[in-house]
Write the structure tokens for this entry.
Amino acid sequence: MTTTKQLLKTITKGIQEKKGQDITVVDLTGIDGTIADYFIICQGNSPAQVEAITESIGDVVRVDAGEKPLNVIGLGNDQWVAMDYTDVLVHIFLPETRSFYALENLWEDAKLTKIPNVD
């Protein structure tokens, strides 16, 4: 069984393999009534990159952690794809869509961890 912390690392690896940028982990564990324990938010520079990041996360998590998302929403328009791993929700955005929804700012009590971009 994969722990949530291991899942966060595995998802991050999947994002980085396709050069996903500006990864932020939002820790919601101390906040009542949230739909997940963590959000991972990142972005790709084009719809094709958003789709590639989504596929990479799915592949890496399946191989490294033996898990599949419960649901994936947004493929096809590729401006905002959400992947549901129960305790972890992954959001892959185009930059302008990410700015518009500003998910990082929804919970002011949440702890934000920014992961440096990989060159």
